[in-house]
């Protein structure tokens, strides 16, 4: 990826004192970053690294190591911090990684794994499916370059000069859109430790600490998943205003309820929804100021082409991975997502084709569509909709700690009023704990394992939404 390194070298010449990276310990200018990357590249060269596993929390050292490997054209495989030990072992052997660099301890070690042959993809990012077995997505240099340039062109007028990374750098979206794009634009990437932002593991967040950290760092831009947007909106609704510095909040990684977007914007959050997937290099479509259509995931970016087939499935061309490891991909990628394109090129995503429910009355319902509608509920942490072949829908609900049962029922009823009758949730089961990897009810990247949830909560677990004896106080 010398295109990015050439760009950084130009920044080092033309704005040597501009800050490129910042964490709690200090700042690194573009001039200093150029030198650090060269020194780290020499270290990797001396160690004979051919394929590198890159582990550790968010930090300048992580970014420097990533760029140093690029300078040597060494394929990089980020190690997600939320992966289990078994998934990490699978990653090491599947990608044939001969060295691992843990930036937290500055430890570069040989793995003992037989190295892959020279060359190959620029980056291999592992994504986990519903079974929890990670798949290695191979991305070539040109694909990453075109993605970065398309995003940079779209964001340059809006995103400002201070980006705060709040997702793990091993997440392709943050790696590409949160690091490569700001560096391409000559902006500042701020990299605090995620624990200092209020994160505890991959599924728990202290909202007050998160809001305080945003005030401390004063970012111009951040990338959020829907749950983080919901938390930020909730805090703003309680009078904890976002920092006035914020200019652009990108939200992706899952469908966002238009009502939540409206509420967020009303409270002063400049939020814009986008869409992408690892197999397509992170971002395919994005709303931006002046080209914004709430309810859509944005206009398709110029480096990609999208079509919707006769079954309603979204297909992507021109922005497609090389393939999974040892499984080449074709020219077009069937995303598995259902949606539509309007006449102006804005893309709408309705849900996953494989999750489609067909009620006893023959109505097709995307569970993600219904689940998204409940994002406005301040008593609900999460919710999974079921009901294939049944007369009405039901949902397994994870309340927020301390949620009032009467308020929870009232909020569900209020959301139901805005849904068509066939899409309303009439029965609920209260989950005793959030869906996580540890209890087998979520994948490593946080998506619900629907089959496992259905087995854990059989039909006998459900009661009517209108049942006055609904108990939620035991949820933690």
Automatic annotation (TrEMBL):
<feature type="domain" description="AMP-dependent synthetase/ligase">
    <location>
        <begin position="9"/>
        <end position="96"/>
    </location>
</feature>
<dbReference type="GO" id="GO:0016874">
    <property type="term" value="F:ligase activity"/>
</dbReference>
<dbReference type="InterPro" id="IPR042099">
    <property type="entry name" value="ANL_N_sf"/>
</dbReference>
<dbReference type="InterPro" id="IPR000873">
    <property type="entry name" value="AMP-dep_synth/lig_dom"/>
</dbReference>
<keyword id="KW-0436">Ligase</keyword>
<feature type="domain" description="AMP-dependent synthetase/ligase">
    <location>
        <begin position="113"/>
        <end position="325"/>
    </location>
</feature>
<protein>
    <submittedName>
        <fullName>Long-chain fatty acid--CoA ligase</fullName>
    </submittedName>
</protein>
<dbReference type="InterPro" id="IPR050237">
    <property type="entry name" value="ATP-dep_AMP-bd_enzyme"/>
</dbReference>
<dbReference type="Pfam" id="PF00501">
    <property type="entry name" value="AMP-binding"/>
</dbReference>
<dbReference type="InterPro" id="IPR020845">
    <property type="entry name" value="AMP-binding_CS"/>
</dbReference>
């Amino acid at each position: 990826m010398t295109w990015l390194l050439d760009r950084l070298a130009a920044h080092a010449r033309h704005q040597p004192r501009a800050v490129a990276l910042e964490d709690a310990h200090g700042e690194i200018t573009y001039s200093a970053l150029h030198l650090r990357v060269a020194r780290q590249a020499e270290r990797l060269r001396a160690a004979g690294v051919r394929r590198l596993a890159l582990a550790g929390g968010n930090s300048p050292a992580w970014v420097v190591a990533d760029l140093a490997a690029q300078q040597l054209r060494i394929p990089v495989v980020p190690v997600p911090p939320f992966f289990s030990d078994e998934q990490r072992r699978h990653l090491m052997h599947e990608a044939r990684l001969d060295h691992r660099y843990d930036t937290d301890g500055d430890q570069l070690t040989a793995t003992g794994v037989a190295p892959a042959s020279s060359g190959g993809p620029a980056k291999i990012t592992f994504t986990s499916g519903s079974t929890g077995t990670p798949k290695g997505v191979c991305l070539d240099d040109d694909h990453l370059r075109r993605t970065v340039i398309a995003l940079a062109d779209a964001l340059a007028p809006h995103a400002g000069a201070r980006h705060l990374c709040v997702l793990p750098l091993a997440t392709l979206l943050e790696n590409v859109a949160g690091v490569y794009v700001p560096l391409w634009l000559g902006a500042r990437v701020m990299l605090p430790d995620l624990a200092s932002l209020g994160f505890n593991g991959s599924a728990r967040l202290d909202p007050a600490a998160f809001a305080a950290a945003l005030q401390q760092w004063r970012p111009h831009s951040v990338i959020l998943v829907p749950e983080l947007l919901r938390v930020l909106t909730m805090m703003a609704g309680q009078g904890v205003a976002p920092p006035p510095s914020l200019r652009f909040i990108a939200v992706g990684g899952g469908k966002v309820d238009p009502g939540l977007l409206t509420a967020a914007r009303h409270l002063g959050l400049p939020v814009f929804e986008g869409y992408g997937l690892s197999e397509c290099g992170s971002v395919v479509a994005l709303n931006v100021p002046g080209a914004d259509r709430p309810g859509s995931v944005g206009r398709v970016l110029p480096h990609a082409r999208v079509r919707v087939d006769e079954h309603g499935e979204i297909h992507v061309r021109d922005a497609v991975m090389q393939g999974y490891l040892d499984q080449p991909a074709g020219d077009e990628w069937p995303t598995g997502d259902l949606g539509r394109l309007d006449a102006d090129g804005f893309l709408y995503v309705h849900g996953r084709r494989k999750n489609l429910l067909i009620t006893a009355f023959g109505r097709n319902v995307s569970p993600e569509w219904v689940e998204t509608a409940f994002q406005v509920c301040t008593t609900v942490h999460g919710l999974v909709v079921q009901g294939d072949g049944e007369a009405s829908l039901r949902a397994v609900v994870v309340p927020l700690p301390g949620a009032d049962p009467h308020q929870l029922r009232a909020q569900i009823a209020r959301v139901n009023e805005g849904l068509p009758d066939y899409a309303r949730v009439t029965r609920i089961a209260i989950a005793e704990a959030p869906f996580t990897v540890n209890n087998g009810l979520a994948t490593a990247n946080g998506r619900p394992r629907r089959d496992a949830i259905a087995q854990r909560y059989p039909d006998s677990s459900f009661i009517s939404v209108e049942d006055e004896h609904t108990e939620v106080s035991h949820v933690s």
